[in-house]
Specification:
It is built from 7 helices and 6 strands.
Length: 237
């Protein structure tokens, strides 16, 4: 966890080449932290299922998106994030996994209402992308093709695609048998990384990137989703 935070702190302070390297390193450290926590608290079988769903699913949907425009819209990756697989930067499916896990941990408290839990997980991922996509497009890591309604330069179809995929991915993770014998777990690592991602994204866009619109839209949207998810629901008691 500390390594993830450590490589993210200097990101706004370095040049474009350094930022690309730090972006990749951040994803690698984050996904390692998520996978290690899953392995330690949920066991090998659940973790294997998580990798198949999140990494495999992320690669599949990104490959579909790059070649067909479904479900996000038309876009293309540059080579600045390292090697590509089927036209997709190889680090991108790992980014899906790194955030899918803390989102799952957060919404699992709603598991007695699996539809609600899955939609909340999808909203966590989709609202996080309100920060991610403008930052990555500005950095030149990918670009959008075509027009249509947009928010901060990103097609609205992308948000809908993220919501759809994020909801399906969360539902699949909720369907994996999570060992009941370890019901009382220390979940502070994934939840701290989720909170750090939210707060640092708001701060970076306000203080370093000169993108107050991104900070406000992402801050309000993701903050609202996190608040709703954290609220106690009578049906969950």
């Amino acid at each position: 966890m500390l390594a993830t935070v450590a490589v993210q702190i200097p990101y706004p302070l370095v040049g474009s080449t350094g930022r690309s390297a730090l972006a990749v390193a951040s994803v690698l450290f984050f996904v390692i932290a998520s996978t290690a926590h899953a392995l330690a608290t949920r066991g090998l079988l659940w973790t294997a299922g998580f990798v198949v769903v999140a990494v495999g699913g992320g690669l599949a949907v990104e490959t579909l998106g790059v070649h067909t425009g479904v479900p996000f819209g038309r876009y293309v990756y540059a080579g600045s994030l390292g090697p590509r697989l089927f036209g997709v930067a190889a680090v991108v499916p790992l980014a899906w996994a790194m955030m899918a896990y803390p989102a799952y941990v957060l919404v699992r408290r709603h598991r007695r209402a699996p539809v609600r839990a899955a939609v909340l997980g999808g909203l966590v991922l989709a609202t996080w992308d309100l920060f991610l996509d403008p930052q990555m497009v500005t950095a030149g890591h990918w670009r959008w093709l075509g027009g249509g309604p947009a928010l901060n330069g990103i097609p609205l179809t992308n948000f809908l695609g993220w919501l759809l995929v994020g909801t399906a991915m969360t539902a699949a993770l909720l369907a994996l048998p999570d060992p009941a014998r370890r019901a009382r777990r220390d979940e502070r690592i994934p939840l701290t990384l989720l909170a750090w991602t939210y707060l640092s994204s708001v701060l970076a866009n306000l203080a370093f990137f000169g993108e107050p619109d991104v900070a406000v839209v992402g801050g309000v949207a993701m903050g609202a989703v996190l608040a709703v998810t954290l609220l106690p629901w009578r049906a969950d008691r």
